[in-house]
Amino acid sequence: MFLEAAKTNDCGSEFGLGAAMLGGAANNKTGTDVRFSMIEQIRQQLTEHTPRRLAMDVPEAAVLIPLTRCNKEPEIVFTRRSSRLNTHSGEVAFPGGKRDPGDLDLSYTALRESNEEIGLPYDRVELIGTTGDVVSRFGIKVTPFIGVIEQDVELIANPDELESIFRVPVSYFLEAERLRTDELRYKNNRFYVPAWQYQDYQIWGLTAIMLVEFLNVALGAGIPLNVPQTLPSIPEKGDWSRQG
């Protein structure tokens, strides 16, 4: 049985599009359709991007970064995991999970998991690219896929896995101040990852890393992950000690 989340087809934002950062995508004076011009910009950048591929003999997983064709501006769909889960309980994440033996490829994994978690029909999402592989603290290689969905798609949270589904305008992450900067360690590397607060949701950790890479590749956000930012917050000791 699926539990219907709060209606997720009601688009709206108090934030502008940050026209300077988005290459003029918000130029309504010319009659430009903001949502489509921004999505087309994202599509073009992803087409020209060469995704990072990690040659590692480790378990694989995939997530979907759903991008809506919203009336006001595109929004990114996130989930909050159930507090009853053994790992990452109550955390914000993209829909996704481990690759099953029967999955044709990792893009199918992302679509299958999205169907299971948020009820997204396979035929209601258009995959437009990927940013590159990342590795979780559990040693799982995760591949994020970006997919465009229509704003009228009804998304329903699977109560066995999720507490809620919510949307955030893309411009929020370009204009809002970060909540903090987390220092995450992986082997001999340190990464300085933004954390954002949106309403009562915190977006951080591996989810934030994939989000930042999407913003950088698709919109030229220029958010650095390898240099310290203001007031870094040091997580507990250990590699990727706050989130996998």
CATH architecture of the domain at 28-49 and 57-177: Alpha-Beta Complex
Report the end-to-end length measured between terminal Cα atoms.
Answer: 28 Å
The CATH class name of the domain at 28-49 and 57-177 reads: Alpha Beta
Structural class: alpha+beta
User: What amount of the residues lies in strands?
Assistant: 25-35%
Q: Pick out the low-confidence regions.
A: 1-9, 12-32, 231-244
Describe this structure as you would to a colleague.
This protein has 244 residues and is α+β, with helices and mostly antiparallel strands. It has a domain of 143 residues: Nucleoside Triphosphate Pyrophosphohydrolase (Alpha-Beta Complex). It contains 4 helices and 12 strands; from the N terminus they run αββββαββββαβββαβ. The strands form 3 sheets. Strands 1, 4, 5, 6 and 7 form a 5-stranded mixed sheet that branches. The protein is globular, with a radius of gyration of 17 Å. The two termini are 28 Å apart. It comes from Parendozoicomonas haliclonae. Keywords: Hydrolase, Magnesium, Manganese, Metal-binding. GO terms for molecular function: coenzyme A diphosphatase activity; metal ion binding. This is Putative NUDIX hydrolase.
